Structures are given as C-alpha cells and as structure tokens.
Amino acid sequence: MNTGSMSARIACDVVVIGGGAAGMMSALQAAYAGASVILLEKNEKLGKKIYITGKGRCNVTNVAELEEFFQNVPRNPRFLQAALHQFDHEDVTALLEMLGTPTKVERGGRVFPVSDKASDVTRALARGMRDAGVQVELNTAVSSVRRGEDGLWEIALTAGGVLRAQCVIVATGGASYPSTGSTGDGYRFARDNGHTVTELRGSLVGLTIDQKGPTLLQGLALKNVRVSAAVGKNKIFDELGEMLFTHFGVSGPLILSLSSHLPDDVTQANVLLDMKPGLTQEQVDQRLQREFTENARKQLSSVLLTLMPARMGPVFAQLCGMTAESPVNQITREQRLTLGRMLKALPLEIAGMRPLEEAIVTRGGIHVREITPGTMMSRVQDGLFFAGEVLDVDAHTGGFNLQIAFSTGALAGKSAAAFALEHM
Description:
Blueprint: E1 12-17, H1 21-32, E2 37-40, E3 61-62, H2 66-71, H3 81-86, H4 89-98, E4 103-105, E5 110-113, H5 118-132, E6 135-137, E7 142-147, E8 153-157, E9 162-170, H6 185-192, E10 201-203, E11 207-209, H7 212-215, E12 221-231, E13 234-245, E14 249-251, H8 253-259, E15 270-274, H9 281-294, H10 300-305, H11 312-319, H12 333-344, E16 346-348, E17 350-353, E18 361-363, E19 371-372, E20 377-378, E21 384-386, H13 400-422
Parallel strand pairs: 1-2, 1-9, 2-6, 9-21
Antiparallel strand pairs: 3-5, 4-5, 7-8, 8-9, 10-18, 11-14, 11-17, 12-13, 12-15, 13-14, 15-16, 19-20
Helix pairs in contact: 1-5, 1-13, 9-12
C-alpha cells in the first residue's frame, strides 16, 4: 500500500479502523452499499478475538426475540433498537450461509457454525469483503484520526502516511483481551474528537473472593447449581448453571454472567450459592436426617460425600463451623439445620472483579448519548462512526455481544456509505 501518495488525495469513501467482527461487517456493508472501502487492521490477521469466542467454536448470535435480547443487555439496551431491527440474527445467519458458512442452533438459542470452527466465520467475512472489493491492509496501525479543514477525514498511520476519506468508522474493540489487539485505541480517537468515554471495567469476568476456603478448591467445577445476587432488597441475578473455583475466587459461565449484573462496588452485593436447587429447604433437611440416621456411626464427611464433590466436603464443613471428621451422632439439630441452610444459600464474599485485561468484554466505552442510534454516526463530528465493543454497550454470554458487533457494524457501514456518497 503506497500511503505516501495518499496524503494529497482521497484514498476512498470509507476507512474502517479495526478488523474484528464489527469492523469486517462495517466494511462489507459499506461496500455492498456502493462505497469504496479500505479496512485497516493492526494485527497480522483479521478477527483475532473471533477465534477465541465460544471456546473456539464462535457463538455468532442468539435467536432470542428482541425483548429477550434486550434483557441480556445490562447497559443501554434501547440504544441498539435501530441496529437490531435493521440487521438481526436472521440477517447474520443468512449472510454467513451466502458466504459458505452454514449455522446451527443449540441450547439457549446459541448459534454456531455447523463446522464448529470460529476460523470459518472469519474466513467467510474476509471472503465476502474480498469479493465486494474492500481493500484490506493488515499490520497497519493508526496513530490518529482527525477531520481536516476541508471536511475530509485524515487517518494518520503509525508507519507513516495519511489516508483521506469522506468518513471513518472506528471499530477497534474494547480494552479486554489486549493480546487480540483490543488495546483501547478507539477510546483515544473518540476523545481526540470531543467524545466522552465512560469508566472502563471488565464484564464477563472472574470474581475475587475474600474467603480462604473457596480458593482452596482451585479447579473444582460445580454443575447444576444456582447462583443468586441481591443489592439490598433488590435481586439482580438468579440463574442455574455451572461455576468454577479458581486460585483467585470463582469463575465459569454462571459467574461470568453474574459479573455483568454487579454494581461498580461489588461488595454491596449479597451473592449466594445454592448447591441443591432441585430441593426445597425442607427436603434438604429431610435428606440430611435420613443420611444421619443411616450413617450414625460415621463421620460427617460420609454424609457430605453424598451431597457434593469430595474435595468440597472439608471446606464446606469449615464454613458451617464444623469439621468433616465430626461424628454424625454428635451433630446437633442446630448444626444440621445450619448445614441445610448453607447447602441452599452458601454466601460467597465477593471482593472484586479480575482485571479488565482478563474480561471477555469491556463494560463502559464511548457514551451512547453522543451517537445517533439510527446511523451510528457521532453527534459531535459529522462523518465519524462507531461500531462494536468500543461503544458503552455490553451483554451476557450466549452470542449477544457478537450480534451487537454485527448489528452496529452493519448499520455504521450502510450509514457511512450513504454519507460518503451524498458528500461526493
């Protein structure tokens, strides 16, 4: 790419910065709408973050109806209404099918490529861009984005040279998983052009715990358990699923989902683990009584083995104020009731969230009040568009975040093309 000669002329109608899900979709839709497009990606390949989504299978979207979709977007869901209406999950799957990557629907409405390969999604979008005439430049970092005196956008490249375009789409991702190239460049570009960036935190991330006991269970997974959380009298989370104990506290699907609901001060939340969600409190006590009667001469550990993984027994007993070696026939009624209560509501003393760099997505970003939801164009600067995780919108696991990237990317691409062609 000969960047030096481009400083004196328009390189294209639309420059897209970022080759992830939102960037590729932006470029593709802008090209489909008749614009000339250059996509700049600072990594050596496209879609690095796509490769790690869905455990390498790429959960591309979710078939949830719109209202259910909004329920899975904790912050600014209504901002997405126009984007989701004009490009929804059916549009995503139809596009991938057209590009040679059919999809399938699994549990919870999650949609994956039939091949179970995230790489096929990236290849399909790359193939689509190539066929649509998008010029893709890899290993091309951007140092600044500014609007020139003549109204054209000037995109300065780190390696030297400037691209000039009618408009620019910033789709650089958030600040999570920096190894994929999401190092927060888009926030700097936004601030440089008068935008507000809200506080950045991790979402869909592991949680640290104050208690010593749970950290001794590193590597232990619990399946079919329920985790709930409340702030004061307001219940903010209550879901069934799987969680994992780690060296720092807790993680796994349930905990990642929980993290997106927690307030900024996570210590305000009362988080409880129900290890027997299929039983009532009374049924749990009845079972304990039966186990105690049948194992009267044995240790408490024998009873706990029937109720939880062996590794958890000693830690659970300690959290209940007992030891696993206590003879069952010496357990008092009050102690038995305590065991039952803790089986149904074991407190998890959440101390904080893991660092943003470990999060799946970023909470916070460019303030949505400064962006027109029907076009994804800046209210501050004409011809400047934003798409994807760089926005202050994030969702739960299940394909919702990728759908947001695709929807906002598609809308930004179409709108940028219309803007560029109108201002030729």
